[in-house]
Design a protein that fits this description.
By secondary structure, the protein is of the alpha/beta class. It folds into three domains: 171 residues, FAD/NAD(P)-binding domain, CATH 3.50.50; 141 residues, FAD/NAD(P)-binding domain (3-Layer(bba) Sandwich), CATH 3.50.50.60; 60 residues, no CATH class. The strands form eight sheets. Strands 5-2-1-9-20 form a five-stranded parallel beta sheet, with helices on one face. Strand 7 and strand 8 form a beta hairpin. Helix 1 packs parallel to helix 6. The termini are far apart. 23% of the residues lie in helices and 26% in strands.
């Protein structure tokens, strides 16, 4: 019997386990999926925990609930991938052979990469919200915080869910307004980008929202270190931004097994060189990469993993049948962006086409509006939690085209 081994039972790995189990000959192929813990986190929900919109228990379910019974699910952690011998050495010393390996190990915030970030003030006046612990600790701090300089800082540009820092900023504006203390809070958004986002049309909309909400943007700020004693961010060119409460989006890095296996790209962030269309490893033909573990030039977001999974299923089936990899991923990503006060906006783009205005997902009908701030987009964001648990993870089809459609979009 041949073996498909999946490293990582997060969003991408779980989707692939479900899709492959439904499509492979079970007499010929055995699927094993490895992860280091039992809990599956709905990571988009971390954003809502600090503001009391979600409770911590709203974003956690057992991983086993979403993995088919016929798939071998093991709690373990990969230590090293031996690509020459098609083996993965586990942390407990055991070895797992594979014929096809899927790497879905994701990315993780690494605050220790920045001097002073994970120092004396960590989880006191410095927080992240990209982790379950960080989001829950920040929720407790916001309940009692009396105001001052709130700084949201991106330490790097390659992060999971690139719009989440913007969403946090807008939700913070609404949160403190509704508490009757917005006049006591100075909100500053500090980013290495030259504006609020990477795409021009979306950046224009988001910059205007920042201005309307009296949020200061400090662009082109490359964080070097955090001075805990003075409570100051310091850039490489010695700019300084003072804070009373810092919400950090730290450097993101790929899994340690990528580094241990010498499979990462040249920038040292442990993301795997991956063909941006076929999702095949550039260095090993029987290894495929999906989700945040890739070095693809698109967002590290759940929507991207979902669209990749459709392509990857086709290409793995082609590969094991000795056929060319014809399915091509176009970099499709779409993201709801919370803007506060029960409203949101939506962007849809790919490798070649930036976010455009229009209707989504159906031309003329919507009901969501692209690059529009409205109630429907906020409700869509909230509804997605149900879709995630009940459809996305289990590999069901969603009414959204895998490759980006121009239907409903308005071009100049």
């Amino acid at each position: 019997m041949k073996r498909i081994l999946i490293l990582g039972a997060g969003t991408a790995g779980t989707m692939m386990a479900n899709k492959l189990y439904k499509n492979l000959n079970k007499d010929l192929w055995r699927i094993t999926i490895i992860d280091k813990d039992e809990d599956h986190y709905y990571q988009p929900g971390f954003l809502f925990i600090p503001f009391g919109i979600y409770k911590p228990e709203d974003v956690v379910k057992p991983k086993r609930k979403f993995i088919p019974e016929g798939v071998d699910f093991r709690i373990n952690e990969a230590a090293k991938i031996m690509v020459e011998s098609n083996l993965v050495i586990m942390q407990d010393g055991s070895m797992l052979p594979y014929d096809v390996l899927i790497i879905a190990t994701g990315t993780t915030p690494a605050p220790e990469e920045t001097e002073g970030l994970k120092g004396d003030l960590w989880y006191k006046d410095i927080f992240d919200f990209y982790t379950y612990e960080g989001a829950t600790q920040l929720a407790k701090r916001l309940e009692t915080w009396q105001g001052g300089n709130l700084v949201i800082n991106l330490a790097e540009t390659i992060i999971k869910c690139p719009v989440a820092p913007l969403e946090f900023t807008f939700l913070a504006d609404a949160y403190f307004t509704e508490k009757g203390m917005r006049d006591k809070v100075n909100i500053t958004y500090v980013t290495p980008l030259s504006g609020a986002f990477t795409k021009p049309k979306a950046t224009a909309l988001l910059n205007n929202l920042m201005s309307d909400k009296n949020i200061k943007v400090v662009p082109d700020f490359y964080l070097q270190r955090v001075d805990n004693d003075r409570k100051v961010l310091i850039s490489y060119d010695e700019q300084e931004v003072p804070f009373d409460l810092l919400v950090s989006i730290p450097v993101n890095k790929g899994d340690q097994v990528v580094e241990a296996s010498h499979m990462g790209d040249e920038d040292g962030l442990n993301f795997i060189p991956t063909d941006k269309h076929t999702l095949q490893s550039k260095n090993n033909e029987n290894i495929f990469v999906i989700g945040d573990a890739t070095n693809l030039p698109t967002s590290k977001a759940g929507s991207v993993a979902h669209f990749e999974a459709e392509i990857l299923l086709e290409n793995i089936l082609s590969y094991i049948n000795g056929q060319p990899l014809k399915a091509k991923f176009d970099g499709h990503a779409n993201c709801f962006i919370e803007t506060g006060y029960g409203k949101g906006t939506l962007i849809d783009f790919n490798y070649e086409i930036e976010p455009l205005p229009g209707k989504f997902p159906f031309a003329g009908i919507g009901p969501m509006g692209l690059l529009k701030v409205n109630r429907a987009n906020h409700l869509g964001k909230l509804a997605f939690r149900w879709v995630y648990w009940h459809m996305l993870l289990t590999g069901k089809k969603l009414p959204v085209s895998t490759n980006m459609s121009m239907a409903g979009k308005i071009t100049e």
